[in-house]
Amino acid sequence: MVALTSIDRALVVDLASLDRAALPVAGGKAANLGELLAAGLPVPGGFCVTTAAYRLATADTATAAAGTDPAAARAQVLTAPVPAAVAAAVRGAYAALGDDVPVAVRSSATAEDLPESSFAGQQDTYLNVVGADAVVDSVRRCWASLFTDRAVAYRATAGVDPAGVAIAVVVQRMVDAAAAGVMFTADPLTGSRSRTVLDAAPGLGESVVSGAVDPDHVVADPRGRVLDYHVGRAGTAVRAVAGGGTVRVPHGAERGRCLTDAQVKELVALGERAQAHFGAPQDLEWAIDAAGGAWLTQSRPITTLFPLPEPVEAGHVYFCISLAQGLVRPMTPMGIAAARRIATAAVAGMTGRPPADPDVGPRGLVVAGGRPFADVTTPLRTAPGRVLLPRILDVMEARSAVVLRELLDGDGDPAHLLGAPAGRRSWLPFLRGVARIAVRFRVPPRMLVALVRPRSALAHVQRVRARVAPLCVVDPALAPGDHLRRAERLLDSVFPILPTVAPVAGAGFVGLGLARLLARGDLPAADVHEVLRSLPHNVTTEMDLRLWALAATLRDDPASVAALRDREPAALAAAFGRGELPGRLQGGLGAFLTEHGHRAAAEIDVGAPRWSDDPAPVLAVLAGYLRLPVEERPGTAPDVQFARGARAAEAALARVVTLVRRRSRVRAALVGFGLRRARALAGLREEHKDLLVRLLAAVRAHLGHVGADLAGRGLLAVADDVHLLDLAETAAALGGVDQRDLVARRRADHDRELRRRHV
């Protein structure tokens, strides 16, 4: 066999000569096996038939095969003769293993087992292959499996260029396994790095990988201590047959455990060594031979694991901030940069101690998978934090509240669980801190005014809106550097503005809390829901109703109806940009976007397009509204439903007050007061977010001018690429730094996170 120094030209190489650098010629599987061998881990010996052999064998067919349907491509590869040089190299390497040694022949594609994606199971495996002729034939079949329907489809989904894909083949000594399976050095479902998960079955591991068996499921800690062992039910074991091939043997549930505690401990230790060597959690395949020895037959990264925040501290708890706003997808780098800047202003405003660098943000604000996280360990080390934080999350992000409670309830000592000594038990320091912040932002007087004079509070909100409006005006004549500085100042101004309106909505919830406290059983949760239906002054509801009103005006305009009925939203959006929509639709949409064009999906991300950038989503909603059968079913109209909800809320309010009055007229008056204030003010809970999004839209507009300048100077490919930079990198670009390569890397990272299926 050939040494690594000539691997690029070699047809066959020893597995022990490979490392990660050999991926282009040996594929992911073979390269990783070479790494395991280099780390001294138990791996069956063998060799790799390189991509050079594949290219030589398919020189006349591979290019044509890549452009045809998968079945035709497979047929071309299977019918092409294996070149004499390749066959001789394979035969020689196989003979070096011994006389008619049983081997496993498995594909090792160059797009396989990459850090960002796993192509496990997409190509074929042949077990217990005996004899040189059979090995050569299995190698050819592995080549052909590069073009199975599932492999072609998977590569297309993963965005892998088919022209750059080649395949190597691993040939290894077979382990005549008494038991085999897979092992994850981190829990792939929960993401816990402190658990190793094993699936085990009798016989060869193929039964586990293929799903032919219900395996034993084992959970262990990093020291190999078994935390849970579930014995699998009846299934089918795959076993080697003397002379070559495999047979499937049914087995019953009475077989008992596949692994002893000692074997679990040994496998976990091997997994920990593999993880340490690769520097990341691993998905391994393993086997226990007849003598009880453990072997590793494959290792690849667990690509479904959500990445840890950077930097991360052990024993800390991190909460995804963007998830609290309903944003599951990753944010752009500029969106995260904006969040850091806003968080800096918030910390400075609340504590009077601004972080050192506004572009880095406060300590404890970290990023993982393109999503901002806050370190909530410090509040969880206090009694108030352990009580209040889950309740706050009940409102903001209920799923996270469930996880947090499980985390705290899963150990009798939460402080120990968080890797810290016991936290403060007194509420007094917390209450003092809250009082200082409340006084600094005049929260008590604003809430009191809102409760006593709701109209004055609503007028105050209107004044804040009027103050924000000129901040959102973007002068295109500004120099690019001035646009960037204006964007930064807007981000710095967000937090000081928001606390001026949030207390008004807060007063509404104070009224609701007062009513629930006094009404007790006469105000059940179902009636709370009824009382809060169709709240006035909700900017999101008002926006939806305005869009419905626009749809209603378009119903008697045949040209607008035809356009919305017959054309795709994207085409309509392009026509709107050119001013080519039917007159009523063009004018009505333009007026709507003037007021609400700052909104969008993922709108808390500065890098996300606004409706004013791309009105296709709005046009899709308009088209849907026009399809509503309001003539046959008038009750389906949104404005009718809103009015019906408001009447139901008033009826529920009156019913609760009547029930309470039976016990106390004074208490009934107070309950009525609280519920009426809740209805008058709680709808403003969306106001602070709307103001935030208006300011972010203005920031985006300023950055758009910066991006256009950088694209015009050749420092970015297109203007929107500015959102794949942060503020400091944008400033560097304005100074002349070419950021196109950085943007390309960021785009690849962002696109990969957008494809993440398990968050």
Protein model, in words:
This is PEP/pyruvate-binding domain-containing protein. It holds the Pfam family PPDK_N. Residues 25-304 form the Pyruvate phosphate dikinase AMP/ATP-binding domain. InterPro entries: ATP_grasp_subdomain_1 (IPR013815), PEP_Utilizing_Enz (IPR051549), PPDK_AMP/ATP-bd (IPR002192). It is a single chain. It is built from 30 helices and 16 strands. With 759 residues, the chain is an alpha+beta fold. It has a six-stranded antiparallel β-sheet with strand order 9-8-7-6-12-13. Helix 5 packs across helix 6, helix 10 crosses helix 18 (480-497) and helix 19 packs antiparallel against helix 27. The longest helix is centred in the C-terminal third of the chain and has 26 residues, at 687-712. The two termini are 44 Å apart.
Q: Which tags fit this structure?
A:
759 residues, alpha+beta, 50% helix, globular
List the helices and strands and how they pair.
Layout: E1 12-14, H1 23-38, E2 46-49, H2 51-57, H3 62-66, H4 70-79, H5 84-97, E3 103-109, E4 125-129, H6 132-144, H7 149-158, E5 167-173, E6 177-184, E7 196-202, H8 206-209, E8 216-220, E9 226-230, E10 235-240, E11 246-251, H9 261-278, E12 282-289, E13 294-301, E14 318-320, H10 333-351, E15 365-368, E16 371-375, H11 377-380, H12 383-396, H13 398-409, H14 414-417, H15 428-440, H16 443-452, H17 454-468, H18 480-497, H19 502-519, H20 525-531, H21 539-554, H22 558-566, H23 569-577, H24 583-596, H25 616-627, H26 638-661, H27 665-681, H28 687-712, H29 727-734, H30 740-754
Low-confidence stretches: 1-5, 112-122, 412-416
State the shape. globular
Count up the helices.
30
The separation of the N and C termini measures 44 Å
- Considering DSSP H and I runs of 4 or more, what fraction of the residues is helical? 40-55%
- Widest beta sheet: strand line-up: 9-8-7-6-12-13
Record field, number of beta strands: 16
Rg, rounded, reads 32 Å
Secondary structural class: alpha+beta
Strand content: 5-15%
Largest sheet: 6 strands, antiparallel
Q: What would the average pLDDT be, to the nearest integer?
A: 88
